[in-house]
Amino acid sequence: CFYALLNEPLVDLAFQAVQTSSMMYDMNVVWASMEQAEESTKHTLFNQVVSDVEGWASNSGEYAYVALAALALAVDDDPQLWSFITKIQNTILGGSDNYLFASEDAMVLCVGMVAAKLSRTADARVSDLIDFIQLSLSDNSKACFGAFFGMGLM
Length: 154
Description:
By secondary structure, the protein is mostly helical. It is built from 8 helices and no strands. The protein has helices at residues 2-6, 13-35, 39-60, 63-74, 82-97, 104-119, 125-139, 145-153. Helix 4 packs antiparallel against helix 5 (82-97), helix 5 (82-97) runs antiparallel to helix 6 (104-119) and helix 6 (104-119) packs antiparallel against helix 7 (125-139). The two termini are 27 Å apart. Residues 1-6 have low confidence and may be disordered.
């Protein structure tokens, strides 16, 4: 269950990979259901999902942002939908700027997931996000699951 994953932070790297992959799968299912909607209602549905997931942040903390990043990966590569990706990117970077992440690892994971989405089109924003991840790795004395998982997605 998605809520069980949100409420159980896992320390083991293999379990973190499973947890993150599960969120990615869940957001693929959410996107698949939104994708069936008419174009005029797709934006409304997307904004509602983003708003709802942001609301989870008060209960589930940074895992809500991981869910948003997973949603970014699920959205089609259609150029008309890039406003969705930009909204998610701004939400995640805003959470980083406002110290809404309990761990840098989760923040870097989210940034890596958004960068992975953007890298599919060689978007110019990718290099800034990769620099952000590299800076996190150089500032961190221990291995950072989020950075490596995010880079692996690219």
